Structure formats: C-alpha cells, structure tokens
# Entry
Amino acid sequence: MSDVTTTRPTAADAAPLPAAALHQPRLPRWTPAALAALALAAGCGIGLGAGMDSTVQWGLIAAVLYVGLTYGLTARVEGRRQAKDRLATSLVWMCFLIAVVPLVSLIWETVARGSKVLDGGFLSHSMAGVLTIQPGGGVYHAIIGTLEQVGIATAIAAPVGLLTAIYLVEYGRGRLARAVTFFVDVMTGVPSIVAGLFILSFWIIMLDNGYSGFAGSMALAILMMPVVVRSTEEMLKLVPNELREASLALGVPKWRTILKVVLPTAIGGIATGVMLAVARVAGESAPIVLLVFGSQAINNNPFEGAQSSLPYYIYEQWAAGNDASYDRAWAAALVLIAFVMILNLVARGIARWKAPKAGR
Amino acid sequence: MNDMDIANSAPADRPPGPASPDLTAAQPAPAQGIRTRKSKTTVRPGDRIFLGLSRGSGILLLVIMAAIAVFLTVRATHALSQDEGNFLTTFEWSANTDPPVFGIAVLAFGTVVSSLIAMLLAVPVAVGIALFISHYAPRRLAAPLSYVIDLLAAVPSIVYGLWGALFLVPHLGGLYGWFDTYFGWTGVLAYHDGAARSLFTIGILLAIMILPIVTSVSREVFRQAPKMHEEAALALGATRWEVIRMAVLPFGRSGVISASMLGLGRALGETMAVATVLSPSFLISTSLLDPGGGTFAQNIASSFKESGETGKDALIASGLVLFVLTLLVNGAARMIIARRKEFS
Amino acid sequence: MAKRIDVSGLSAFYGAHKAIDDISMTVEPRSVTAFIGPSGCGKSTFLRTLNRMHEVTPGGRVEGKVMLDDENLYGSGVDPVSVRRTVGMVFQRPNPFPTMSIYENVAAGIRLNGGRIRKSELDGVVEKSLKGANLWKEVKDRLDKPGAGLSGGQQQRLCIARAIAVEPQVLLMDEPCSALDPISTLAIEDLIGELKERFTIVIVTHNMQQAARVSDRTAFFNLAGVGQPGKLVEIDDTERIFSNPSVQATEDYISGRFG
# Structure
C-alpha cells in the first residue's frame, strides 16, 4: 500500500487531462430564444418568398434552421460537448412542440367547425327524413345508440372484469392465474375490428341474429374487459395487506373481507378505471360498422334492429361527402369529444378524491 | 405481493389442517376435489360461491380468447376453400364475384408499411417528449403536459380520422410536392398531385395516434431511472445530455422498445382513422406519397357493407391474419417487459 | 493540485424555503475537513453547493460566494459542468453505473472530458486511479466485469476511483461510509488519509468518531428549530472541537447531551 503512495506524485504528473478552466466562454441566456425567433422569422420569410402554400413546410424550415444555428453557434463559442447538449435540448423541445401542434389543431378545428351547427335542435333530432345534402337533422338517435350500447357493454364487462381482477389478486395462484394474466395482456392488444369480426361470425353468422345494438355491445364488452381487469388489479394491489389481515384476524370470512374491506378501500380507483374504459369504448366505431349497421331513425330498442352511435354517425356523415354533412360530422365529433373528455375528467377527479391515502 | 396475501391470510382464516380451495390450487390438481369435499365443515359456502364466481370470470376471459381464435379460423377456412386466387399473393379483392378471387398481398403491404412509418415517426418524438417531461421541462409544465398527453390518448379514433381527412390531407399536398421535387428520384417519395390520401399520410396520422401510449410508457421508465446514477454522472462533470446518455437511456432502453411494440400493435389494428383518410386501391405502388393501397382493418370496414356471405368470410380471413399479427407484436412487447421486471 | 475553498455569505434555498443561512468558512488545501451536525441541519446541502450540485434539485437556488483559490464558482460566465469536473463528489450510497464494466466506470469521466485519448494512456489512468483507491489488487483480473457485482465497500472505492480519475482539485464526500459495514468503513477511512496528500477533502459524516479519526478540521452545523435554516456554529481544528469547543451547543452535541 505504501508503494502506491510513494509512486503517486510522478504518476499524477502524467495526467492526460488538462485542468479545466472554470470560466468557459458561454452564450448569454437569451440566446436560444433569440435564435428561435430568428429561425421562425427566416422560416416564414423563405416560405413566403418561395411561395410555399403549406405552413407545415414553413415550420420544417424554421426547425431545421434553428437546430443548425444553435449547433453551429454553440460549437464555435462553447465547444463540441456543449453544442451536443444544446442540440439535444433543442430537439427535445421540438418534440414537445410537435406533440402540441396536432393536439391544438385537432381541438381547434373540432370546436371551430363543430360549433357551427351544434344547438339544441341538433341534439334533439334524428336524421330521419333528412337528405344528407340538406342542412338540418341531428344526432339524437346516435346519442341514444351510444348510451345504450356502452351501457350494456359496461353492464357485461364491469362485473366480469372486477371479479377476474379479484381472482387474480386475492386468490390467483398457479397455472390458471398465470394463463389469465397473460391472456388479459393479449386481449388488451386485440384490435377493435377483430372483436367485431368475432361477434359477427359467432352471433350474426352462426346464431343467425340480426344486426342490433346488443351485438355491438358484446364486442365493446370484449374490448372493455381487459382494461377493467388491469386497472382494478392495480388498485387492489394498492390495498395494504395489514387491512386484510386485521379483518381476517377478527374471524371475518375471506369473501366478506374482500367485499367489506378490500373493495371499499379501492373503490375510488376501480370506479376511475371503469370510467376510463367506458370513455375508451364510447369512441369505438369499427365494431359498430360491422354489428349495429347504422340507422337514420331513432331506435330505442338495443336488442332489435339497427341503431346508430356517435362515432358511426361521424363516419357516415363524413362519407356522405358534402358541406352540410361535414358540418354535422364536426358537430358530432365535438359532442363525442366532450362526452369522452367529461368522462375522463370525472374519472380522474374521483381518483384524486378517493385516492388511498397510503399511496403518496 | 400476492404470495404474501395468501400466506398471511390463510392461518388467520381457518385452521391450518384442511386446506381451502385457493391454497390447493397451487398444489397438484388431483388432490383438490377430494380435499375440498372432505373438509366441508371448514369451507364456508360464501367463500366457495365467491371463489367460484371470480375464478369463473377468469375462465370466461380465456374462453372468449379461445372462441375468437376458433370462430375466426372456422370462417376463414370456409373462405379459403372458395378462394380461386392465392390468398397470400393475389393483388385483388373480388370476394363477391363468382368465383371469388381475393388475396391479402396489398393489405399486408399497406398495413405493415403504414405502421412502420408510424413507428419511425412516433418513437423518436415520443422518446423526446418523454425526456422533456421527465428531465427537461420546468416542473410547472411537466405535470399538466403529461396530463394532456393522456387526454390525447382518449380522443376517439374516428375524430382523428375526420381531422386527418378534412384538415391534415389538404395541408400535406404542398409538403409532398416538395418531397417530390427533391427526393422524387428515389421513387419511394415520388408524388403525382391529387389528394394526399396515401399510405404515408396514414403513417403520419397513426404516428400522432400512437404518440400518447409510447410517450407515457417511456416516460414512466425514464422517471424510474435511479437518481443516484444521474448524480454520479453530473458530479463527473457531465452535461445534461451526457447524463441522459450515461444514466437514463441505458436504463430505459428495453422499456422504450416494449413501448414501441405496444404502439405498433395499436397502429396495425387501427381501423376508422385509416378508413376515413385512405383512398384505397388494390395496387402496390412504389411511391408511398401517392394515394392507394389498403390495410387489413380499413378494408374490412370499407368493404363490409357490400359483402355477401363469402365476402364476409373473406374479410374474416383477413381479420384472422391481422389478429395473429397483433398477437405476435403484443406478445413480443409483453415478453420484453416481463424480462425487464425480472432484472430490476 | 489541491485548492483552497473560501466561502462567504452563502445561503441555499429549496424554492422559498431557506435551507442554510449565511455561511462563511475556509477549507484548507490538502487537508480533510469534516462537517458534523444533527439531521436536517443543511450540511449535505452545503456540501452540494460546493460543486453546484444543489442547483440541479428542482427549486434549488444559491446566494453568496464560493471562491476556489481566486475564482468564484458562482461568478458569471462560470460553467457548472467544469465546476463539477474540478470538484469531484462521492455519494452516500455507492453508485457505479450499472451498465458499465469496472474499467468503463473509472474511464467514464475521462471519456466525457478528454475527447480522444489513446487506449494505452487510458489504461494507465484507470490503473493509477484504481491503485489510488486501494482497489487495484482486488479487481485487476476482472476489469471487464460489471461494477455492480462488487461488494458495497468495493463499489464505494470504485466510485472514489472514478471521481479521482479526472484529477479534481477538491473531493467532496457525502456520508461515504453510512451504507457500509465497519471493515469497509475502515478501508475508506484509511484511503481518505492517503488521498488528502493530493486533494482537498470535505466529508459529511453522521459519525463523530469518524470525524475525529479522519479529519484535520471539523465544522459543526446546527439549526435553531424545525423549519429554520441550518447555520454554521463553529469551525476549528478537530482536536479543539472534540476537546474544548468554544460554543456550548457544540459541546452538548459531541457529548451526546443534544436533543
């Protein structure tokens, strides 16, 4: 050990690194902002000058200019490492902008174009007797369809999903539980159109039933189940074991422990999960195309005859391909987004309000 | 965690001797029935009913999955027996003519190409956003932003489709013309005017649609990257980017891969947005910017209403291929996630 | 090599909360200075202001001056990255990069800072640093194995090797032994004694015996109450602090009469 100590000074002299100077040339703090403004102005200038009609191009030019300018300037002033760092920073910021632009545009377009024909009459009338090229008509029949189909789907999927999650968390052991876990994962990835095809071949082709809202509900239920299972499972796992033990130690049977102690503790999270699943399937249109078939008139009976639904209505009105129907499509899209977003917000509100206090 | 539930709860619940059904489930199967019947006095009826119900639900899920595979296969074999063309290589979808001729070559090409474009566009951006949220954004911006990204996932696909068809498509024409001018010689990026309702546009739209899922999974992984390794890198005099490269990306690599696979699975099966935006044709065009092509899901939705019995069976056959494809991709993603869990 | 640290009027904040208040002290070169004090008194925060690591915590902010010889670490135009390169740090829990081998861990800092470097030169630096951390004999045959496979004490010495490989002026240690067993602790303490011939060392410790064993000078930090900022009570030669401190609070703390 002492020989190491004695040889050290000479070895230290051979250090390959020059001592770093603390003061490195630095660009002023406002540089990125200034460069961004410059690049944006140049992008717009070039776009205008070259007569490009697509603002997407302007944006791309500005982005490339910004990244190039930042890298070049930093590399000159601060050095290569700093330049790379700034390059990464600017790319990451750009990714953020790229994500925000379509979202803002989508919301903006939907609200701006959708509010044109959205009024009380639109919400309370169906398309019965309205030619697609005429203005007028409404989404009442589609709202009824969506509510009924999603309601039935929830009534099927929520109990099954809940019980499966209870099985996995409270009882699950061995091969069966592992198989269920695996296939729940697999089921999450089943495309909605495939769920629709399954009900089509089973319920409509083999059992020879007609198109109906209920057929659509079954497909939606298949899509909902894995989502409910996953979220409920997560929530049940959050329930502290001490609670279960405390109840069992009092001599309460296991099933009552689950019903009276475990579920009430997790109920907020479970409700959130179910509502998010509802929000997800409310926007599904692919199985509806195959199983519910679409209708212009009000059909209050989900078990018999074709119905409509909000997503399907949007598709139909878009396919009609004229200004009046586009207006209706946007308005229905606005209604659908509002519906889904409200469900989401309420679900998250419940989650926050009922969150288990243990989970930070 | 599960092991602990049972291990801790069982002794408190009942006398240790005669095992309850949930305990025997872990042991060799034959013993189960006999033991349960013998220990009638200790297993409460409530427990038995409750276990039966919950286990039954789990089994129901398995049955549904099996039924999906079985029913699709039955209808698909029916369709294949009538197909006069080659199911894999025919460039045509005339399933309602007599004799029916149909093949999935164009659909498979379109599905895979559009989903791959979506992946190529979405994954780098999603990783960027995830890093932005976890490491770059000011804290006041990060929380609302990840919330907004989650909301983006909730927008129904038909609304993306409507936006894509009526807003995105008209805005891409100029860009594609530009691509054509500079990269047209590649053939892949050639563009001959017309509406931009092409596979590439589909790719862009799908990229926007899978962005939220890829972002939120990657974000979680990056957030879990241990702080102490980041500090170690910082203390060595690493810039922020070097910290990410040394201590965050290596840790998150497998998470990002599985996130991309999940996104790919979504993109492969997306129906209505594609059906709304794409202008389908049964040709494989070398140019990805020109309208044409098709995907499995889009073809099913678009041709369903004009289909007779054989036509529907043919669509189901193509749906089966899609099902298998998504199963493979999702299975791969899950396996990567599971392997990663073992390591950490 | 080693430089003097001169702190004057330094306060550090987490958002609106003031963590340490108006600290001034001098840390002599080629010596070991120990920071002691009750939990939450801001000694770790203060340590982290000495290489500008404090500002990477969200909301972290610093006022005051830290002079390294004649340069202010918080002066305008000072690059925090080069500050951290000049002032190395070893953390409470050993944190070798899990994806890198032992060799790569030691070379990590040089790879970052040195740009292009010859393999033989790098080999030399890695060997010298591992020897400097008293780890060479134990790992020389498995340099390509992951650093996470070592024992806790070895990992901590690997982290020290990694920190001294870039030849810093100052080495900060944040409770480097608190996660280690007594034998590994002893190894690290011996190592600190050797390293002080080359570096200015500042060590935060919860263990007063450790402070007495390894340090030349000791600083005692305290806080007036919960929610109050931490303050420097006194700094003096270790012997004096432990035998005849000038402030009553220090004596209370050291003799265990505290709180």
About this structure: The two ends of chain C are 41 Å apart (CA to CA). The mean pLDDT of chain C is 88. Chain C touches chain A through 34 residues (CB under 8 Å).
